[in-house]
Amino acid sequence: MITLLSGTNRPGSNTRIITGIVEKIYTQAGIPCQVLDLADLPPEIFNPASYTEKPAAFTPFAEAILGSQGVVIVTPEYNGSFPGVLKYFIDMLPFPASFENRPVCFIGLAAGMWGALRSIEQLHAILAYRNAHLYPARVFMPGIGKVLQDGQIQDTELMGRLEKQAAGFAKFIASLQS
Q1: Which stretches of the chain score pLDDT less than 70?
Q2: All domains of the chain, ordered by start, with CATH?
């Protein structure tokens, strides 16, 4: 099972819409996946006491990562970086088990012309530190407001890149398991 992580807790975000599109791509390709949406994080995880003892309501979030064969992180760019809630989520996960030798793939979206390049580069460094297996074919989605119309990606070339990434990531995971 691949976990598709919607990397913001912003309600109604473009990130969640893109994550849903990616979920359809994986499902249509016959690749088992599940969506983990940071908008659904339990409020008690933000209590400072959570650093020492995670609330029970956080267990399904940790298990979704720990039980996954790979993780696809879909992240927006906020102020030249990825959302703080995504970093906090990573910090709350068990160390080192959550990303140690786990395949990770990246999709970035932004209003600007770089498509969350900075966000993904920063996440890349963090997850390399965590010893994740980083899939090199990243997808950047600049000008998301023009690319995404009525909940659909209008750019067929971009859809092709997402489909190619999904197929390649599944093969990458399989190669690491053999």
Answers
A1: none
A2: 2-177 (3.40.50.360)
